[in-house]
Amino acid sequence: MSPARCLQLLVLLILGTALLRLLAAATLGLGIDESYMVASGRTLHLGYFDHPPLSWWIARGAALLLGSEQPVVVRLPFVALFSLSSFLVYRLGAMADSPPAGLWAAVALNLAPVFGLTTGSWVLPDGPLVCALLGAGCCLMRALPAERGWGWWLGAGACAGLALLSKYSAVLTLAGAALYLLTSPIHRRWLARPQPWVAACLAAALFSPVLVWNASHGWASFAFQGGRAMAHKLNLAAPLLVLAGAALFLLPWIWAGLMAGLLRGLRAGPRAWRSWLLCWLALPPIVLFAVVALWSRHVLFHWAMPGYLFLFPLLGAALVRLGQARPVLLRRATVGTAALLASLLLVTSAELRWHWLGVLAPGLDPGLQALDWTPLRDELDGRGLLRRPGTIIAGNSWWVTGKVDYALGGDPPVLCLNTDAREYGFSPGPEAHLGQDVLLFGPTLDLARVQEAYGRLFDSIDALPPALLRFPGRPAASIPVFLGHHLRTWP
């Protein structure tokens, strides 16, 4: 297949998948992390509790530019970023092997659910992280074989800084780049030159807003993320569970192909420097999170995805060889995987639209977390609760607060009545509202649990009729509501 033909097919892939993502973005409500980020990011800061600020800035910028917080609006830049990511993984594959390998790498990336469905459109730090890391990888692959020059090194530093400004775990991929230089006989000479060191300084400079924010907030974000690696108890099976979870998120056959590419690249050694570079960029996140899982209970399966990202060019090369040997098998596998993803999306959309699970399991409504609670404003207005004198509104957790806050559009402000308030912990909290009544929302609460958790904070607590969120074509969702009289203390 000629390079021109590969590029034509890549453009069709990018445009077609972007259109599908925009349709999904306009159809599906924001998830709990998305609602929380959009709502808590209405005020721009140099940093945020959970992650560095780039994804918050992007979502808020889209909302301000287009004058709306509708899901398709705040997701639009993340869809655009993943389109760029598809092009960058194509370029990595083309540089590492051939344009057909790059094309197949882009196809596989879009078919991997954790990338194609979530990173590809959701308001999450992973979208800018993936794009920036791929940009850094492309710049590095161009910079290394040059005898001199600054442009590609500065590009690598800028992309590395944007990756760090997206998510702390980017440092692991950058550590992989350093380990590559240490283990590469033909490129180790760069360590004696100023270019990589200046690139590292540029990355640190772009990351500096996060340092400024943390320094002025008691290093809260670093402590939160670092605390996830604290020891809990030894679990020898946990690394296998982390790898199995990654395989599930990527699809087992894609994961197997990625790992096979990693083994081939390691076996080829540093003389095949491009595959050696990709392997070193991949290894630190994959290995570290599996090791940390030995003692930590907080490792999530998607954390290692930036590592797997750099194995897609190697998988692309393997798929080219498979297509030459068994074209029918490759075609069937591609079509079958695409059909599986489409089926998953249709089933999810059908559940959100009609709540068919309610027939099978009454009372079970997981889709409530993926629906926008926008009917809540009309519900509260109709009951005279929204502007009840002397009453503030609160959620019982960070994600409930985010859902309520997004639904109400930031007016009035919503508090988080939980010691784990995340970003809401840095807004004027409950301690600023002592003496007021609190209208508390908690989807998993009943009066007994509320009394146990919050009874000491109030003179008394009443259970109000639940708030009914009415969605077209779907049974109304019931959200328990409680009224705490006279907030006496916090926490």
How would you describe this protein?
The protein is of the alpha/beta class and 491 residues long. It is globular and about 75 Å long. A hairpin with a 2-residue loop joins strand 4 and strand 5 (474-487). It has 2 domains: 3-325, no CATH class; 373-487. The protein has helices at 3-27, 32-40, 54-66, 71-96, 99-111, 113-119, 126-143, 151-164, 170-183, 194-216, 220-227, 238-250, 252-268, 273-292, 305-309, 312-325, 327-354, 357-360, 375-382, 398-408, 447-454, and strands at residues 391-395, 414-416, 437-441, 458-471, 474-487. A 5-stranded mixed β-sheet has the order 2-1-3-5-4.
Number of strands: 5
Helix percent reads 55-70%
Question: What is the count of helical runs?
Answer: 21
The number of domains: 2
- The stretches of 5 or more residues where confidence is low (pLDDT under 50) are none
Mean pLDDT comes to 92
| Strand residue percentage | 5-15%
Shape verdict: globular
The biggest sheet, with number of strands, parallel, antiparallel or mixed sense and barrel status, is:
5 strands, mixed
Helices and strands, in N-to-C order? HHHHHHHHHHHHHHHHHHHEHEEHEE
Termini gap: 65 Å
Q: How are the strands ordered across the major sheet?
A: 2-1-3-5-4
* SS content category: alpha/beta
